[in-house]
Design a protein that fits this description.
alpha/beta; Spo0b-associated Gtp-binding Protein, Chain: A; Rossmann fold; GMP Synthetase, Chain A, domain 3; 3 domains; six-stranded mixed sheet; five-stranded mixed sheet; 18 strands; about 20% helix; magnesium ion binding; GTPase activity; GTP binding
């Protein structure tokens, strides 16, 4: 079963919490803080596996969660980091963020690995919060949560040359005679229901990869005839061989066929319509009236397309077509779908939040935001020194000043998270 698109949920491991601990040994009853740091959460890494050909495995497993980091221990012992989770994908897989549509990775090299979501950082143990005036901090920092996101996996075949054209024009036949690929071939529409790849050998040490893209029809860019599923496999190809049934069987018009396919390419992705094309006028052996061929060839050459008259069934003109395609490929650059230098993390992609906000709800002053939530998780509000640390941090960050600007008065209620207290300046 050829599956070339899948949706999966990814959750990296959370960082482990830092520990609150004090050195307690014989003859040292009042030792200092020795709480260890929490371990980092595990990343989720996608890795190319050359043994995979489709994304069928993701039809049955759609959720991947990496292990969390361990909590810190006493005696300055750090928690173990969560193990990275390696997810294997076929060569040619594009990883796209579902929410933003951005490409996160293009796995197009053998053995390539990419971190898709990063694990959270482990929290600090209380040893880090000791100062000359605060010698027994009874609080530690919590670990940060790991990144999470839903991604769309798209398999785009890695081929140098793509065979395009209407159904039943001879694409599969051509691939079968120039490579070792053995696609199904029959005289009816939509014989090929999945792309086929073949290595075309031109001479010793000279070859290229050719993809037989299933036949396109009008409306393919909108998904007609499984058009979307097929068109994505052309995006990597550097050169297109457009095969046309020049015998014009079933009352078809060869020039109109070229126009329809070209429009479908342009509507799906304008860059595809600009990709270099070679026209292969196929089934010349079944052509009774050569004037049709001359009219077609003249029009295509006027448009700037090189035209080769072939018969895939008898191999007439096929060798010349293949040699020309090979020479063209020498001058064509690789298709880059994604520049790793533009990669951003989940945190960077999200709109930057202010460190805190102060709002008023039913007479209560509510303080919220990423910074306030993070520091609140590091504080033991039942401990006097920890509470003092929290109050100083609030003042230094500007929370107290923001509350005063909002008009807070002594005795007013402040809510931070699930905690409420009276404001005392």
């Amino acid at each position: 079963m050829f599956i070339d698109i899948a949706e999966v949920y990814l959750k990296a491991g959370d960082g482990g919490d830092g520990a609150v601990s004090f050195r307690r040994e014989k003859y040292i009853p009042n030792g200092g803080p020795d709480g260890g740091d929490g371990g980092d959460g595990g990343d989720i890494i996608f890795k190319v596996d050359m043994g995979l050909r489709t994304l069928v495995d993701f039809r049955y497993k759609r959720k991947y969660i990496a292990p969390n980091g361990e909590r810190g221990g006493s005696k300055n012992c750090s928690g173990h980091a969560g193990e990275n989770l390696v997810v294997r994908v076929p060569l040619g897989t594009i990883v796209r963020d579902k929410e933003t549509g951005r490409i996160l990775a293009d796995l197009s090299r053998e053995g390539q690995e990419e971190v898709i979501v990063k694990g959270g950082k482990g929290g600090w143990g209380n040893q880090h919060f000791a100062t000359p005036t605060r010698q027994a901090p009874n609080f530690a920092r919590k670990g940060t949560p790991g990144e999470e996101r839903t991604v769309i996996l798209e398999l785009k075949l890695l081929a140098d040359v793509g065979l395009i054209g209407f159904p039943n024009v001879g694409k599969s036949t051509l691939l079968s005679v120039v490579s070792a690929a053995r696609p199904k071939i029959a005289n009816y529409h939509f014989t090929t229901l999945s792309p086929n790849l073949g290595v075309v050998s031109v001479a010793e040490g000279a070859s290229f990869v050719m993809a037989d893209i299933p036949g396109l029809i009008e409306g393919a860019h909108e998904g007609a005839g499984l058009g979307h599923q097929f068109l994505r496999h052309i995006e990597r190809t550097r050169l297109l061989i457009h095969i046309v049934d020049i015998s014009e069987a079933d009352g078809r018009d060869a020039i109109q066929d070229v126009d329809v396919i070209t429009r479908e390419l342009e509507k799906y992705n304008p860059e595809l319509a600009k990709r270099p094309q070679i026209i292969a006028a196929n089934k010349v052996d079944a052509l009774a009236d050569t004037s049709r061929l001359e009219r077609f060839k003249s029009e295509m050459e006027r448009r700037g397309y090189p035209v080769f008259v072939i018969s895939a069934a008898t191999r007439k003109g096929v060798d010349e077509l293949i040699r020309y395609a090979y020479e063209r490929l020498k001058d064509l650059p690789e298709i880059v779908l994604f520049d790793p230098a533009h990669r951003e993390t989940v945190a960077e992609e999200k709109k930057e939040e202010p460190p805190f906000t102060v709002t008023r709800e039913n007479g209560v002053y509510v303080v919220d935001g990423p910074w306030i939530r993070k520091i609140l998780g590091s504080v033991n509000l039942d401990d006097r020194e920890s509470l003092q640390y929290f109050q100083r941090a609030m003042k230094n960050k500007g929370v107290i000043e923001a509350l005063e600007k909002e008009g807070i008065q002594e005795g007013d209620t402040v809510r931070i998270g699930e905690i409420e207290f009276d404001y005392i300046p």
